[in-house]
Amino acid sequence: MVNMSRWQQLAMENIHRRTAAPGRMSGKIVIVTGAAQGLGQGIAEEMHREGASVVIADLNGALAEKTTRSLGARAVSMQVDVTDEASVARMVQGTVETFGGLDILINNAGIVRPGSLEQLEKADFDLVTQVNYTAYYLCTRYAASIMKAQHEADSEWSGDIIEINSKSGLEGSNRNFAYSGSKFGGIGLTQSFALELCPYRIKVNAVCPGNFLDGPLWSDPEKGLFVQYLHAGKVPGATSVEDVKRYYEAKVPMNRGCYPIDVARAIFYAVEQQYETGQAIPVTGGQVMLG
To answer: Which domains are seen in the chain, by residue range?
Structure first.
């Protein structure tokens, strides 16, 4: 484990120094991983719009910087490999050095590799596990070290760790077992972290979106899930990307994909309420309902 004592002390010294701005998240210091594009970018934009100081953390440093420039003040970009412990430590240290502390970690970075048991190679299974499951543990480990120090400095301080999970963490996903399994595991981590961190006034929750069909994860013409699912035969009878898209839209009672603002509103709820932790909040347009 990387020694965090210097940054813990810095966070303790700055616990009452926050940049206020209009909005529901005023004064909050937030890391959003995987925030250079897609759903993560949309979440970061909504957090920033509501007054937070935001770290745009992504493996694609150039794209993260572009997103940061579009936000302006109270935003900074950091290149991070969430599967690498030293890289994650540097991200958290950089956040404290830049903004003085850390109040919210949004663990959004994720990857999908669909395929049947016969198709999916172990290397792809391992990659999905590393990004979606192991990286959640790493990011939480280093974020929590700062948050615990802040609680020590002020017992009234409270923080949040939020995993962007998936509806596939609430029910299985045919020919997408690596992703679904990693997301089920993520909910197990969320509940376990919630129990461990509750004494430090750190709430840990998961938000489980439906499909962000308009984002690059789905719509990229070469690597998007529409293309991947078509080639994997995940949608019976589909012969085109449009067939796959219509199939997934039809599965949602509200007849559309999930938008970043839908997820952001669930995050706002998780942060603002003070009596829920360890929860998996569905944002699926009615596609997946908790019993």
So the answer is: 5-210+259-283 (3.40.50.720), 213-257 (no CATH)
